[in-house]
Design a protein that fits this description.
alpha/beta; binds guanine; zinc ion binding; 17 helices; about 425 residues; Urease, subunit C, domain 1; binds zinc ion; hydrolase
Length: about 425
């Protein structure tokens, strides 16, 4: 058995702070995290726990740093890494102008592997240890990403884009080939180690009803796989869906008709939704991925968290790179705060970091494995350097409370805050100073 321990300030969430207040979080100013065979063995005050440890166990001293569970990114596109920050368009034009030409390159497996490697490195340097990721229409794009994630032993979810209309010929499959390629990938990768497959129709406009039916069939034929797609992001998109699916009562119904809702279905955005659609999301346990930097970047609209809470819709946070403008969960939470401010709502810092950790794990139905430091969970965590920049050191030095520190991290933070990232108790990233 391999054991090691980490000394630092340690924070994690046991429940949703919106419902449970401060009792939802546990914080040890001078804490010790004990890890055995890649899993959490114990957490407590340093002064108590150190006495119980065998003398052979090494203690890594991160005093002055803050340890938290690894961040969970509910929605992102690895092929779009190279076109992050592409100027000046809203969703549909942005897809045609920038996204589709870029995604074409992933027909080449070697190219895909190189970008997947860069992407996973970037996740780790930002403290993101789990992500739900779009590939491209090419099945080899997903092989490339899973190979890289497997080499890092990361818990990662991904899928091949299904897209059989309204896209260039070089990026389309067919209803049947999408089924066959997805099935092949599911058999090769789903539940292999820490990997999970997500059936991935891009969004309703780029799939025929026949293809969405095949997506539903995949969920039936392979119980336990996930589904990821996009929903109600942009007003022009909504109008387009209404013309493409004249028999659907609304955008959500274009998916619902084909059995694509449920607790393992994750839809990015969900900005422009009726009360009735929210109710069907809630009733089916379907999850939304709120992607704040993307929504601001593409001018898509303001996600209404209060309404989702009121109606019981599950959600957590995604970066949506490359429409999203950062890999950093800190920057993403910063924009989430601002989006709520524009609606006269103040997102509490505890709520933000809950959403990025345990909230994300719950949204993915992975909370038995991930999200906090309860004994037996997988030891994916980040070490945060509160003095990573002169401004950060100066500002956190003036904070009186943990809430203030957390808020400052989410407003001013970026990848420079991440001192190290651990996967299953092993260091996967170390910042070079
Ligand atoms: N809707 C369909 N495809 C995409 C995509 O790649 N990015 C975003 N933000 N929205 C989409
Ligand atoms: Zn997206």
């Amino acid at each position: 058995m391999t054991s090691h321990a980490f000394r630092a300030s340690i924070l994690h969430y046991l429940d949703d702070p919106r419902l449970q207040g401060e009792s939802a979080r546990e914080y040890f100013e001078d804490g010790l995290l004990l890890i055995e065979n890649g899993r959490i063995a114990a957490l407590g005050p340093y002064s108590d726990l150190i006495k119980t440890l065998d003398s052979h166990i090494t203690v890594e001293d991160y005093s002055g740093h803050l340890i938290m569970p690894g961040f969970i990114d509910l929605h992102t596109h690895y092929p779009q890494t190279e076109m992050i920050a592409a100027y000046g368009r809203q969703l549909l034009e942005w897809l045609n102008t920038y996204t589709f030409p870029t995604e074409r390159k992933f027909a080449d497996k070697d190219y895909a592997k190189a970008i997947a490697t860069f992407f996973v490195d970037e996740l780790l340097r930002n403290g993101t240890t789990t992500a739900m990721v779009f590939g491209t229409v090419h099945k080899q794009s997903v092989d490339a990403l899973f190979e890289v994630a497997q080499a890092q032993d990361m818990r990662l979810l991904a899928g091949k884009v299904m897209m059989d209309r309204n896209a260039p010929d070089f990026l389309t499959d067919t209803a049947q080939s999408a089924y066959d390629d997805s099935a092949e990938l599911i058999e090769r990768w789903h539940e292999k180690g820490r990997l999970h497959y997500a059936v991935t129709p891009r969004f309703a406009p780029t799939s025929t009803p026949e293809q969405l039916q095949k997506a539903g069939q995949l969920l039936q034929d392979y119980p336990g796989v996930y589904l990821q797609s996009h929903l109600a992001e942009n007003r022009d998109e909504l109008a387009w869906v209404a013309t493409l699916f004249p028999n659907a009562r609304d955008y959500l119904d274009a998916y619902e008709q084909f059995g694509l809702l449920g607790p393992k279905s994750i839809y990015a955005h969900g900005i422009h939704l009726s009360e009735h659609a929210c109710q069907r999301l809630a009733d089916s346990g379907t999850v939304l991925a709120h992607c704040p930097t993307s929504n601001l970047f593409l001018g898509s609209g303001l996600f209404d968290m209060e309404r989702m809470h009121a109606q019981g819709v599950r959600f957590a946070i995604g970066t949506d790179v490359g429409a999203g403008t950062s890999f950093s969960m800190f920057q993403t939470l910063g924009d989430a705060y601002k989006i709520q401010q524009l609606q006269s709502v103040s997102l509490a810092p505890d709520q933000s970091f809950y959403l990025a950790t345990l909230g994300g794990a719950r949204a993915l139905s992975l909370e038995t494995h991930l999200g906090n430091f309860l004994p037996g969970k997988e030891a994916d965590f980040v070490v945060i350097n509160l003095k990573s920049t002169p401004l950060m050191a100066f500002r956190t030095g003036t904070c009186q409370t943990l809430n203030e520190v957390l808020f400052v991290l989410s407003m001013l933070g970026d990848d420079r805050l991440i001192e190290a990232t651990y996967i299953l108790g092993s260091k996967a990233y170390q910042r070079e100073n």
